[in-house]
Amino acid sequence: MFTEGLQLNIVVDPRPLKRKANSSILSEFGLSKKSQETTTHDHKRSRKNDSHSQQRAKQSRSRQNSQTHRLSVKSTREQTSKQRSKPSKFKRTVLSKPRKPIPQIRPQKIDRTKRKSPAGAESFSNQSFASMNLCDRLTNQLENHMNLKEPTHIQAKAIPVMLSGRDVLIRSQTGSGKTLAYLIPMVQKLRNKSVERSQGTKALILAPTRELSLQIFLVLESLLRAYHWMIPGIIMGGERKKSEKQRLRKGCTILVATPGRCLDHLKTTKAFKISQLEWLILDEADRLLDLGFEKDVKSIISIVRQRCGARRRQNALVSATLDSRVSQLAELALSNPIYVTVEDGSKSLRQIPSNEKSSAESNEIDNFKIPEKLSQFCLQVSSQSRLVALGAFLRWKIETRNSAKILVFMSTCNEVEFHYELFSQSFWPDLREMGPQKADDENSPLVDCSIYRLHGNLSQSDRTQTYLQFCKSSVGVMLCTDVAARGLDLPSVDWVIQYDPPSDIVEYVHRIGRTARLGRHGSAILYLLPSEMEYLSMLSQKHLILKPIELSEVFKALQTKKSEDSRLPKHASYGFWTRKPSESVLQAQFEDIVADDPGLKNLARRAFQSFICAYATFPRSMKSIFHVKHLHLGHVAKNFALTDPPSNMHTSGQSREDFFESKRPRNRNKGLKPATRTSLTGDLSSRKPDLLKVARSRSIGVRSYGNVSKKKRENFQMSEFAA
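User: That's the sequence. What structure does it adopt?
Assistant: Structure tokens below.
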């Protein structure tokens, strides 16, 4: 503002211009050189007088405008100085912008009256944090800032044992508060000592997945707000190693890490100080072993022992399930541990020495513990109707409950991507062909809420953003793989849909454990084909009872006023006003969406192939239920809204023979007998032998090949397609 005023004063300065002034400047004020010259002609004198009078008039007007502008600039400066003299609430410069708030996950506030009721007191004990010999600062942080008034059963038993200094093996069901069971005593013991960042890491927590590591870090950060001198830190795959090295160089008192990145920094980062390490926590130990981190964890334990020497260190191993592999890891990492768990029924608590762990282990493998307020359901649906049944079920639950949050588990990353793109483009009823007016008035999304996706092929920034957004939202659907099945505390999840059956019962228990956490109600449903219904008897042997749901009840969510009047939208595949059922119209709509989008069609093909190959990887003990030969591949293609027969499932620009030749493993079918090629049952022998051979050549125990050993077949993994 001040610069413009100064320029205006210079331009409109009314002082007389020099004779040598530029003609362009003179012309700007309506002057000319001819008016400055004196002539002897009388007829020019009149013109000269006229021009001088015009010049004087313009100069007077310019002088008035200049004075007015100076007064306005002066008043503006006075107003600005007055505003600056007033104390402002927010101080901002011209170039500064308001910082975006950092997304945080705060523990859900639970009313004490609900906890003390018989229905809400099942997950919490009758004790208080103040009665557990915790300091006042920590108790105040838990009760007033984190809204936690009472500890859970596992916290009430594990915290005193860990405060005594003993190594602990903690086993409890999902959603019982195991994270705070080791964080609270860790902070309680470290706050009594003079902790400085220059001393390096005092506590190390290993978690199997990035999302679980981020969740532990956020809880730890909230707990340490009362202790500003203790610095939390996190290192995990997908982040910049340079930034992590800077944090390690400055010092992190309590560090949360994934095993692979932690081992990498222990070997390559000299500034990573663990010589004064006092705590080592292995969270979700069973998942650490399932994901293949056993070698990395053992290497980390050996490096810690070498650098810490004879220094006393307290160790803890936390797991929701206990098997022989977890027991072996406990023997390696723990020293004379106390086994802490919660019994069923009377809620009595017990401590079992390590020498009595074997008998408890055998009993717990047979009986899986699930949340008591969890309702389990089963839906029997054919292959060609699974896609419509999923869309109808999501629409049903979102419409009946405005604040529903749903998790949908699928077996592969390609499946998650395909369903995410398809549901984002689907409407019901699809009235776009009836004209823009009808579409604007009555058209609505099939799933009228935010849809999220989470799988291992996403970048770390996308995974973190998706996780935080779904945690903060009150309603939404998240399509995910088993990367979200272990340890994640996703707030207020109402339904867990297992669209693809898990590979074992332990994974089933972890999936349904994402709901009904900390005394809340929750539900889980399992989608099964008619040939897979025997899986229910396998679950019942583990005391997991599922109630059936009728498919017709799910399809009622697709009934609208249009369908009741038998005036459904005109569809390209029908060519007339159809009177077909709503589920048939929705299936045709899915097929049209996929056929019109080449990118989505190619994604559907990849999802189809990955599903077939993942289906062939079920363990041998479950092959009698989940076998490739039980699938009707034409119906499975309908599950991905594909109209092409499975024999034509090849990429564009590539012949069918070249496609199957590129996917077939080399030197694996030399011993295949000709009779085996034609010994297919049902409609598989006539319609899709080539694709079935691809799946069988990649399967575990589907067919016996002459030159392939049994060990290689059992260890074979579908790295090309499976998630």
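The chain has four domains: 2-81, 122-366, 374-579, 607-714.
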